[in-house]
Amino acid sequence: MKGKEWYQADDVAQEYDSKRFSRGGRLIDSREKRAVVDAIGPVEGENILEIACGTGRFTVMLAERGADIVGIDISDAMLSQGRAKARSAGVADHIEFLRGDAARLPFPDDHFDAVFAMRFFHLADTPTKFLTEMARVSKDLVFFDTFNRRSTRVAYNWLLPMGSHLYSRSQVDRLLDAAGVRLVGAEHDFGLPYGFYRKLPNGLAQQFRDVDTAVGETAVGDALASVSYWTTSVA
């Protein structure tokens, strides 16, 4: 089953968080949330859009920090999980979950203070169209991540062929140019792919993560990274 079809299945939505962000996956969840917070900054009172919000991991987190946020996704099953999570956290009044197409966002130009997408562009069949739409509806900040071509992610894709797209730096640069956004910051992380961490107990995963982080801080760290976080501006 290809990535997009798999993603929209009801049973996948029900088990998505528990399978990916328990055990060693907690380290991934924590790092991704830190990447989003670092990129967007203080969010209290800000109007934010999340593309491919899934089960609302980031949507609910930002609402808890005071944001008014819209989460859009193609999967009704994922959105249902997100709504339940928002109600449980007591922030449902600050979140609107919408089913929709990220290539045709139902919002006017310059509508949001920030727009972001996590774990989306590896499944995007028309990335330029998606990023252009994200830039259109943002007043300034656009943030997203990619999986990298020259990394251990290549082996992961070979073992689990779900149609994930891996990006080179030159492809990302062309994508930014085509969408009319300017790069203002980039971080690169995870020499070991996500799937490796998810298989390990949290304590053992932390030991590998410590080594991974140490290597990432060396001169070769960026070249080995399987994930990149891109902070861009439309200004």
TrEMBL record:
Highest taxon listed in the record's lineage: Archaea
Pfam families documented for this protein: Methyltransf_25 (PF13649)
Record-given protein name: Methyltransferase
Keyword Heme: no
Molecular function GO labels: methyltransferase activity
Annotated keywords: Methyltransferase, Transferase
Keyword Transferase attached: yes
Source organism: Halobellus salinus
SUPFAM superfamilies cross-referenced by the UniProt entry: S-adenosyl-L-methionine-dependent methyltransferases
Any GO BP: methylation
